[in-house]
Automatic annotation (TrEMBL):
This is NOMO-like ninth beta-sandwich domain-containing protein. The keyword Coiled coil does not apply. It comes from Australopyrum retrofractum. InterPro entries: NOMO1-like_9th, SDr/BOS_complex. Residues 12-49 form the NOMO-like ninth beta-sandwich domain. The keyword Repressor does not apply. It comes from the Eukaryota. Keywords: Signal. One of its GO terms (cellular component) is endoplasmic reticulum membrane. It holds the Pfam family NOMO1-like_9th.
Length: 252
């Protein structure tokens, strides 16, 4: 005995693959049901030209490799910004080893930039004319031009304080950077320029999620930036009390 079950709209009745000449066969199919035929292939764009016929176009690929000043240098993840004709734009980040692949790209002219704070990239922008099915390789060389100051913020009890704003300001040169502490009380001020002096301090901004900071000790820390990161900066903060209790004694 066999059981007949009616297909619902959107169900897949059958799947098949094309032969070497691009033709395909599917069936047997019920003759009293209407069917829609769809085709897909990874790396190709397919356009339906008839009830059972398709035209395909092989899509392109851009392979990106990012190197440090030394080929063995491990870089943080880099933002890759790809733009093209017709308003095309895609932002991605490089993987481990400084590599990334933009796949399934239509033929057009593209512009590719690599972006990472504290680094300069050579070239700054790459123009790419991509034809159908092209695979192009692009290389960037990253040079570090700025550095970081790292530290932590705790309460008087030693408990880490999250959500505290910390700033680095160079009054003589007008440079300014800001960071916020994470759940471990750690902060990292990026983009400090070598040869500059900065004053680093806690900023008493309101944070709606956390208790506000009233003051910090020390009030500020001065650093001279060389061509290396600075670590070990520490602040102890005192939270602003949510209410003030006043007690007094009146003598008659």
């Amino acid at each position: 005995n066999s059981k007949y079950e009616m297909l619902k709209k959107g169900d897949i009745a059958t799947e098949t693959k094309t032969n070497s000449d691009g033709s395909f066969f599917a069936g047997p199919l019920y003759e009293d049901i209407g069917y829609e035929v769809e085709a897909s292939k990874a790396g190709y764009h397919l356009k339906q030209t008839g009830p059972y016929s398709f035209a395909c176009q092989k899509l392109g690929q851009i392979l990106v490799h990012i190197y440090g000043e030394k080929d063995t240098e491990m870089l943080p993840t880099v933002l890759l910004s790809l733009s093209g004709e017709g308003g095309y734009r895609k932002n991605s980040v490089s993987g481990s080893g400084g590599t990334f692949s933009f796949d399934n790209l239509f033929p057009r002219s593209y512009y590719l930039r690599a972006l990472l704070k504290e680094y300069k990239f050579t070239p700054s922008t790459v123009a790419i004319d991509l034809n159908s099915g092209d695979s192009r390789a692009v290389e960037f060389r990253a040079t570090r031009v700025a550095f970081s100051a790292m530290g932590s913020v705790t309460l008087l009890t030693g408990q880490p304080k999250e959500g505290v704003f910390v700033e680095a300001r160079s009054e003589s040169r007008g440079y300014y950077e800001e960071a916020t502490t994470d759940s471990f009380g750690r902060f990292r001020l990026r983009g400090l320029i070598p040869g500059s002096s900065y004053s680093i301090r806690v900023v008493a901004k309101d944070n709606l999620r956390l208790a506000a900071v009233e003051r910090a000790s020390p009030e500020s820390v001065s650093v001279d930036v060389d061509e290396e990161d600075i670590s070990g900066i520490g602040f102890v903060v005192f939270e602003r009390p949510e209410a003030t209790i006043l007690s007094c004694h009146v003598e008659g």
